[in-house]
Amino acid sequence: MNLLDIRNLTVTYPGGAQAVRGVDLSVAAGQKLGIAGESGCGKSTLALALLRLLPPGTKVGGEILLDGEDVLTMRWGRVRAVRWAGASIVFQGAMHSLNPVHRVGEQIAEPVLLHGRATPGAARRRAAELLEQVGLPAARAAAYPHELSGGQRQRVMIAMALACDPQLVVADEPTTALDVMIQAQILRLIERLVGEQNVALLMISHDLGVLADTCDRLAVMYAGRVVEEGPARTVHEDARHPYAEALSLAFPHIGDPASRFAPRGLPGDPPDPFALPPGCAFQPRCPVAVDACATEDQALREVVPGRRAACLHVPAPLPGPTAGSAETRSTA
Ligand code: ADP
Ligand code: MG
User: Fold this and answer.
1) Which of 9, 12, 13 to mutate to test the pocket of ligand 1 (most atoms within 8 A of CB)?
2) pTM for the structure as a whole
3) What is the rounded CA–CA span in Å between residue 90 and residue 189?
């Protein structure tokens, strides 16, 4: 069984924006899945849905099975128990997620106390230990958020996310607000910690290159759908869906100076979720669209074992034995 199974997830905000439109994704225990896509493609909505953090009045359909239990139908008491201890989220802007008037040590200790796992003294000791794990001196526990740099605050957020030993950490653009040098440090830190503690990671970024470096598998979202999914490096280097390819060309490939110095952009914007075009949502921007793309929507289907794409140009795999492919990596 997978640690996380998202099945046919749909999210419609009050007002009617269809932000997520039938997403199927899985994460095995200890696995790292990246979710890429331009701004507005529904990545954060998906992350918020995982822990029932969407605003009231939002319609959510499908299933989100965390360790076999559907988060969407859990009682609130159970949802609160799952947050932090089962799955936790690191958001982009640490300054907005931390409370400005409380010392960071208290904030890290809070989820530990909340989950009844420790006395106040033990929670303080746990906070100190976590600070050291994320590369900050334990004495920084006494600091207020404004006394820390952006990178240090993001380290505090990571410490909080790990405080209750969750099985899954969701990181939504965890380094987007940071300087390039600090970004790399924070990414290495996340990688090291999830590796050491065998935590599964769902990492969201608009930067496909970063995800290809950090994650085992990669899903590319467009207009609320997954349009391609497969082994991270393969998707980055040999995308099958034209959108995934365009996104991958927009970010430098490691070891390919040509793409580094001449990143190719993609003209236009993702569609407005209030006014999705008929057929394939990417068709108005697609360089290889044909007439049928304007009327037929494509389901995500297996291209080769372990790789899925949703494009009319992507042929289905040939019938017959395909086992032994180097790309094969079952998530079932
Ligand atoms: P991403 O994280 O990929 O940038 P989001 O999940 O934030 O995308 O947004 C997906 C779509 O949902 C966007 O079109 C956005 O405008 C819309 N959206 C996000 N939050 C809300 C909200 N609270 N109410 C209505 N629409 C929203
Ligand atoms: Mg977002």
Assistant:
1) 13
2) 0.90
3) 13
